[in-house]
Design brief:
With 532 residues, the protein is mainly α. It contains 21 helices and no strands.
Length: 532
C-alpha cells in the first residue's frame, strides 16, 4: 500500500467514525471526500458533478420509490459509509491508484462561490422564522411545495419510501417523483445530531435547507458545463479565460434570471432532472474517450436518477447513450454488445414499472387518458423567457452543425441531445393539450419541457458568448480587456432588469426575475396568516 492510499484510508476511517460520534461533522467530511477522493474528473468541479450523478443513481437503486429498504439513521449512515469504502476501493485498481487530487482553479472558485451564494440567497428569507412564517412563505411561493414537503416528511417519519394509508389504498402521492425527497431524508437522518426524530413542523426548516442547497448545486453543475464547453470551443491557449468567463456568465443568469422561480414553485426535482440530463449527456459524449471512461456508468445511473425525478426528461440522455454504445463497440465489441443489451433491458423494465405505478393510482386509466388529463392542466408553471426557449432548438442545431463540420461528432451530440429530448416531450404534450382544448403555450406540461430547453441551452449560450468575447478582445492589452468585459457584464445584468433593494420599485424600473423571486419569498414569509 503506497503512502497516498494509506492516508486516504485513514481519513475515510476517521470520517466513518465521525458519522456516528459527531454526525454533522462526519456528514460534511463525507461530502467533501466524495468530491476530492474519487479517481474521475480533471477538476474539482468535474469530480463534484460526476460524484453527484453516481450518488443519486445509487440512491435510486438502493432506495427505490415505494421500496422496502429502510430509511433510518442507521441505514443512511451505513449507506454513506459503504459508498466511502467503495470509492476508496477504486484506488486499489493499479491504473487509478495514483490519480492525483486536482488543484483548485479560478473556474472551481466561481462554481463553488455560485453554490454558496445561491443557496444562501434562496433560503435567506426563511432564516430565523417560526413555523407559521415558514408555511406561509412556502405556500405563497408555490403550491407544489406542499406535495414535495409531504413526500419528504412521510419518508423521514415512516422510515420508508412506502407510506401506509388508513384504508390500505395507494397513497395519493406514492407515485410522485421522490428521489430528491428520499435523498433529503437520508441526508437529514445521517447528519442529525440527535436520535429523536423531528416532528412535522420541525421538518420545515430542513426541507427549506436541503431544497436550497440542492437547487444551488444544480446551478453550480450547469455553470461547470458552461465553462468546460467554452474551453473546448475555444481550444487555444490564449483563450483560457473563456472557461471562467462562461462559468461567470451562467452564474449571472442563475442568480438574476428565471431559474429562481422554479425553486419558489417547489420544482427542485424538475431542476435536478434537467441538470442530470445536461451533465450526463455532456460528460458521456463530449469525446470518444469520455464516452468510454465515464459514459458506460453515467448513462445508466443518470437515467435511473432522472426517472425518479421527472421521468420524461430521460429521453435527453438517449443520443449520448448512442455515442457511448458506438465508443464501447469500437473498443471491445462484446463489451459494447453486453452494455447495449443491459441498457435496453434496464430501460424497458423501468419504463414498464413506472408506467404501471402511475396508471395504477387510478385503476382503469389508460395512457391516452393520462395524456389528456395532463394536457388539461393550464396553470401552475413558473414564468421564464419563452422566446429563448422556443428558439433553443435552432441555437443548438447551429452549434451542432458547426461542430460536425469540425468532425467533432460526440461534442455535437452532447449539446444537442438534452434539447432534442425536451423537444420530443413538448410534441407529446402538445397533442394532449390539443385534445383537452387548452392553448399550447398555456399548458403546464407543454411549458415544463420548454423551460427545460431554456435551462439546457443557457450554458451553451454562455459558452459561445464567452468564446466570442475572448476572441474579440484577443489583440487588446489586459487592462482594456478587463474594462471591456466589465462593461459587457454591466449591460448584460441591466438587460435582466433592475437589481437592488426589493422593498419597492420606482416607476420605470422592473425587477430582474431572480430578484423578483426573492421579493416573492419575502412577501410570503411576512404574511403568516395561512401558516397560522
Amino acid at each position: 500500500m503506497n503512502r497516498f492510499l494509506g492516508v486516504n484510508a485513514a481519513v475515510v476511517a476517521a470520517t466513518i467514525a465521525l458519522l456516528w460520534l459527531v454526525p454533522p461533522v462526519g456528514f460534511v467530511a463525507a461530502m467533501v471526500l466524495l468530491v476530492v477522493l474519487p479517481p474521475w474528473g480533471h477538476s474539482l468541479s468535474e469530480r463534484f458533478v460526476v460524484s453527484a450523478v453516481v450518488l443519486l443513481g445509487l440512491v435510486a437503486v438502493a432506495f427505490p420509490r415505494a421500496g422496502s429498504t429502510p430509511v433510518t439513521q442507521t441505514s443512511a449512515r451505513l449507506a454513506l459509509a459503504a459508498l466511502l469504502v467503495a470509492v476508496l476501493a477504486l484506488r486499489l485498481i493499479p491504473k487509478l491508484r495514483d490519480v492525483p487530487i486536482p488543484r483548485p482553479s479560478l473556474s472551481d472558485g466561481i462554481v463553488g462561490l455560485l453554490a454558496v451564494v445561491s443557496s444562501w440567497w434562496l433560503m435567506a428569507a426563511f432564516v430565523g422564522r417560526n413555523s407559521y412564517e415558514l408555511v406561509s412563505g412556502l405556500f405563497f411561493s408555490g403550491w407544489d411545495n406542499q406535495g414535495h414537503f409531504t413526500t419528504f416528511a412521510n419518508t423521514y417519519e415512516v422510515g420508508s419510501t412506502t407510506w401506509p394509508t388508513i384504508d390500505g389504498s395507494v397513497a395519493w402521492n406514492q407515485w410522485y417523483p421522490s428521489l430528491h425527497t428520499t435523498t433529503w431524508s437520508l441526508a437529514q437522518l445521517a447528519a442529525q445530531g440527535t436520535n429523536t426524530l423531528l416532528d412535522r413542523p420541525g421538518l420545515l426548516w430542513p426541507y427549506i435547507q436541503w431544497n436550497s442547497i440542492t437547487f444551488a448545486l444544480c446551478l453550480a453543475a450547469l455553470a461547470w458545463v458552461a465553462g468546460d464547453l467554452a474551453a473546448r470551443l475555444g481550444g487555444r491557449a490564449r483563450e483560457r479565460w473563456a472557461r471562467p468567463l462562461a462559468a461567470g456568465a451562467f452564474a449571472v443568469f442563475a442568480l438574476i434570471g428565471s431559474p429562481a422561480f422554479l425553486y419558489n414553485r417547489g420544482f427542485t426535482n424538475f431542476m435536478m432532472g434537467v441538470t442530470i440530463v445536461v451533465t450526463v449527456a455532456y460528460l458521456s459524449a463530449r469525446s470518444w474517450r469520455s464516452a468510454q471512461s465515464l459514459g458506460w456508468f453515467l448513462v445508466p445511473l443518470g437515467g435511473l436518477a432522472v426517472i425518479g425525478l421527472w421521468t420524461p426528461l430521460a429521453l435527453g440522455i438517449v443520443p449520448s447513450a448512442a455515442i457511448v454504445a458506438i465508443a464501447l463497440l469500437k473498443r471491445h465489441r462484446w463489451w459494447g454488445v453486453a452494455w447495449i443489451l443491459g441498457s435496453v433491458v434496464l430501460a424497458a423494465f423501468m419504463a414498464l414499472t413506472q408506467t404501471a405505478a402511475i396508471l395504477g393510482v387510478e385503476p382503469g386509466t389508460s395512457a391516452s387518458d393520462l395524456t389528456a388529463d395532463l394536457g388539461a392542466v393550464g396553470t401552475g408553471m413558473s414564468p421564464f423567457n419563452l422566446g429563448l426557449a422556443l428558439v433553443s432548438p435552432l441555437v443548438v442545431a447551429l452549434l451542432a452543425a458547426l461542430l460536425i463540420r469540425q468532425h467533432r461528432w460526440p461534442l455535437a451530440i452532447a449539446v444537442l441531445g438534452p434539447v432534442l429530448g425536451a423537444g420530443i416531450i413538448v410534441l407529446i404534450f402538445v397533442s394532449g393539450a390539443d385534445t383537452a382544448g387548452v392553448s399550447r403555450l398555456q399548458s403546464y406540461y407543454v411549458l415544463k419541457p420548454l423551460n427545460a430547453m431554456l435551462i439546457a441551452v443557457a450554458p451553451i449560450v454562455a459558452a459561445v458568448a464567452s468564446v466570442a468575447v475572448v476572441r474579440a478582445l484577443a489583440g487588446l492589452d489586459r487592462a482594456t480587456r478587463v474594462i471591456t468585459v466589465l462593461m459587457v457584464a454591466a449591460v448584460t445584468v441591466g438587460l435582466f432588469g433592475y437589481v437592488g433593494a426589493f422593498t419597492s420599485f420606482d416607476a420605470g424600473f422592473s425587477a430582474a426575475p431572480g430578484v423578483q423571486a426573492g421579493a416573492d419569498r419575502m412577501q410570503g414569509v411576512n404574511d403568516p396568516l395561512v401558516g397560522m
